[in-house]
């Protein structure tokens, strides 16, 4: 990065940040509408620093949120996001921005980014975990892309079609609400986890719907929604952000039908990539499923600085939060109660 001036910027409204959010290193998760949806839901205040050259043009930047709650004070780039890669091209640029932000010393700081980020080489940050990222470049005709996906996926698509599963491509907020009900059930029954609140999904819809950048895909068998996914568009890519399915209908292979429909939607939109998002490495089934569709696989790294031993009251709160989650995701608890619990408690999981 050439000699630059570093200034504070509001990533929700600043034109310099918006410009950076459309550069090659940017993603959905550093876009103003995504940041606004997250921060508006949970009451966070996003911050960023931007480097500008002598002409006032932005040359780099990164954003974060500082959180202060019962779990302690910490900074995160950015909460509830697959990643938030610094929007810089080299290590020198990253170091200048990180120094200006003055993070990683006063309280813990966490950043998740792709493995080629300049931040990875910073000795002040240490790698604490890895996840998988998958993508499908849309660099061929639909027929060629269909031939590229695994033979198992093609057979599954045929199974879904023979079963009579249909995939609806929806743009209305009611489709998002239908998906959320399925999402709550899946997280509760399969993972014993709470789901993000409906308010978050509705904010996402409000941010992306006016510019036609959100599609909710619902796989239906007869009159029942048996699987769904929320796709968001940003900067030439189609992001598979949320997915859920009903376990009792997996034999009809609705997820395969949704994935193939998502690829075709992206092609119709003239986009260059389907981003299948983050997959934890301790979920080998999910990683294997995405590999059937993706031709690119990378690593997402979590980097941390300034970690300190938690205070006794923070340890106690974390233990109580875990126990509350276990109780509120018991199969005897009505889904409506589990949904309300997610709305109250999910903010503490970042």
Descriptive account of the structure:
This protein has 11 helices and 12 strands. The protein is α+β, with helices and mostly antiparallel strands and 350 residues long. It has 2 domains: 5-133 and 303-308, 3-Layer(aba) Sandwich (Aminopeptidase), CATH 3.40.630; 140-271, Gcn5-related N-acetyltransferase (GNAT) (Aminopeptidase, 3-Layer(aba) Sandwich). The radius of gyration is 21 Å and the shape is globular.
User: What's the total count of β strands?
Assistant: 12
The averaged pLDDT comes out at 96
User: What name is given to the CATH topology of the largest domain?
Assistant: Aminopeptidase
Molecular shape: globular
Give the helix level as a range of percent: 25-40%
The count of domains is 2
Strand order of the largest sheet: 1-2-3-4-5-12-6-11-10-9-8-7
CATH class of the largest domain: Alpha Beta
- Radius of gyration, Cα only, in angstroms? 21 Å
- What's the SSE pattern? EHHEEEHEEHHEHHEEEHEHEHH
Structural class: alpha+beta
**How much of the residues is beta strand, in percent?**
25-35%
End-to-end C-alpha gap = 32 Å
| Low-pLDDT ranges | none
Number of helices: 11
CATH architecture descriptor name of the largest domain? 3-Layer(aba) Sandwich
Largest sheet: 12 strands, mixed
